[in-house]
Amino acid sequence: MSYLEIVFLAFALSVDACVVSFSYGLVINHERLKSALMLAVFTGVFQGVMPCLGYFSTNFIRPYISSHAQLIVFIIFTALGLKFILESFAENKEKTIDIKLLSLFLIGVATSVDAFSAGISLSLYGNRIFKPALLITAITFINSILGFNFGGKIKNIPTQWLEIFAGLVLIFLGVKSLF
């Protein structure tokens, strides 16, 4: 696989992280820089680590993970999306949305399951993994920051609608993972 193909792969892998960050960018009102950076770090690191795990465990883990990967992503994204939607109907409209460490971890895992498979593919193509993993990490980090910031630019829409939309986007990503 050429480096140009790996760049395209990195952009494709970063789309989910960008969309999730966009969704959070829609609804987070305080500590935006910290939240954007935390999302970008978690999604970027997971996107870089998962291909390495896939690369080095090609022959061992693939039979166990591959049949459940789509379901795992579906459950995580659907749960996060439903949480956003349910919180949009909460009485206290002055609430702040924080990204907890567990949520960051789950987002990292959910957005990088495909990267695990990419690592398997890179192994089967005979590529080395270090440079592609760094490239995937960097592109995901940048796209996550861009997605979060773009989500914050369209905040003139009523908050409840934004929260519902963000939840629906996450649920859509979960459903998309099943196909």
Key structural traits:
7 helices
Concise summary:
With 179 residues, the chain is an all-alpha fold. The chain has helices at residues 3-27, 32-56, 62-65, 69-88, 101-125, 130-153, 159-176.
Characterization of the model:
- It is built from 7 helices and no strands.
- The chain has 179 residues and is mostly helical.
- The protein has one domain.
- Helix 1 runs antiparallel to helix 2 and helix 1 runs parallel beside helix 6.
- The model has no long low-confidence stretch (mean pLDDT 81).
Low-confidence stretches: none
* Fraction of residues in β-strands: under 5%
First-to-last CA distance:
25 Å
Largest sheet: none
Topology, number of strands: 0
Global mean pLDDT: 81
Radius of gyration: 16 Å
| Count of folded domains | 1
Indicate the overall shape: globular
Provide a count of the helices: 7
The helix fraction, in percent, is over 70%
Secondary-structure element series? HHHHHHH
Structural class by secondary-structure content? mainly alpha
